[in-house]
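The protein record filed below.
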Amino acid sequence: MEAKLQNKRPKHLNLFKIKQPLPAVISILHRVSGALLFFPGIPLLLCSLQMLLESEQGFDALRDYLSNPMIKVMLLLPIWFFSHHLFAGIRHLASDLHIGMTLTQARMSSLLVVAMGVLLTVLIGMLLW
């Protein structure tokens, strides 16, 4: 009796050892980037907006802070979060409309999301410098 129960138990799947296809990775990164844009992204954005609008000294302090090259490099990460989230969201909307549902189209749109996210990040990064 106990041997039969052992066979029916679910197996433990280690998700870190399973190689996910690119569309799945893009979907997971879409969720992660959205969560990171929400927190700490929104509080940091609101804090800097308050500092910007509070006084002329606050504006100067924020401008001096953002002119630091290390801060500019660190800003590239949230910029990539935003651009990836934007293009992956467009991809998800297209899939909701049943556009790009075949395997080759899903892989191609995933590659396009990565390429466009990196390209937009590089372009905005060039504007920062």
Notes: The first helix runs from residue 2 to 8. The mean pLDDT is 93. The chain is about 80% helix and 0% strand.
